[in-house]
Amino acid sequence: MPPVTSTDLLAQAKAGIREVDVYEARQMVAQGAVALDVREQDEVDQGVVPGAVHIPRGFLEFRIENAVPDRSRPIAIYCAGGARSAFAAKALQDLGYRDVVSVEGGFNSWKGAGLPWSTPKSLTPDQRRRYSRHLLIPEVGDAGQQKLLEAKVLLVGAGGLGSPAALYLAAAGVGTLGIVDADTVDDSNLQRQVIHTTDRVGMLKTESARISIEAINPDVTVIEHRVRLDKDNVLEIFGQYDIILDGTDNFATRYLINDATVLLDKPNVHGSIFRFEGQATTFIPHDGPCYRCLFPTPPPPELAPSCAEAGVLGLLPGTIGLIQATEVAKLILGVGEPLKGRMLLYDALGSEFRELRMRRDPACPMCGEGAPTSLDEIEYTDVSCAIPVGLLTGVA
Ligand SMILES: [Zn+2]
What we know:
The protein is α/β, with parallel strands linked by helices. It contains 16 helices and 13 strands. The strands form two sheets. It has an eight-stranded mixed sheet with strand order 8-7-6-9-10-11-12-13, sandwiched between helices. The model is unreliable at 390-396 (pLDDT under 50).
């Protein structure tokens, strides 16, 4: 018997699958089919069908179940000319995918027919190495890393919570990190504010943070806001970012951050710490509750001791700040379930996490009916650093 040639194999593969032309493929994609690109990275860099999922042919069987878990979902596979996609279609059918087609003529025909395509922004070889552990995760991958690099995140405070959050967001490749802080590094900060160093005592915290971040990852642009947030600057500063991470330790700023993020409709990833206990949640304005749905107004001062009086275990903000940073990354990537409507409570002494369900208050003074449309009439007077859990309202 003569040896089997690649031509024979291709003919066999094509005999067992359905092929469509580029016009039919485009229609399928418009109706919700997955466009699956099985070419190599250097080919993809030259241009792609917009929205296509990229899995190189060699990884197809390993990655398809993560990328397209639903085996009944239609998939239009393309390569450069229609041969590799035929083999790929056969492989997916063997894996139980029921509605798979191979695009005749592949991307070359697609482009030749004048159908829409785009050149993807691609990672540099340096970035491919740096973020290789992200690229291996299907939920992140190339597209996710690009989202991280393009994201703009504002950290309010380069203190206990902002320090670990900034370090990890920088390492993960969040491309723009703004930092609001008007303070200088004090030696009593160093017990927990790990972005600062002993030799930078006396330096502005934003500058110290920038030095640390740039040493970790040159991909990150740091924008220093050497100001105290107030009603006059908050909207202008927040307007430049996608997500706000609240790492403040005082009530006036916390309410100001809440109210500004509600007005601007931007996610507010909140954390607070008190001795051995921490809290974190993600406020998505007008979708989940906001801070004022839970605490309409600051509590009386006698019920909430100030941070300086209360103290905090130096390790605690690491845990809470990283929960916040993880929430930020998930929002950027669009994966997982945010802590929306849920307050995560961490008790370091008991090594326990608990969760409180929270709901929107229709009568909330900030996100409820008849809420203000500017900050002009709102008073922000400072009280202290943490509201005891017992004062939570709106807990389901
Ligand atoms: Zn509210």
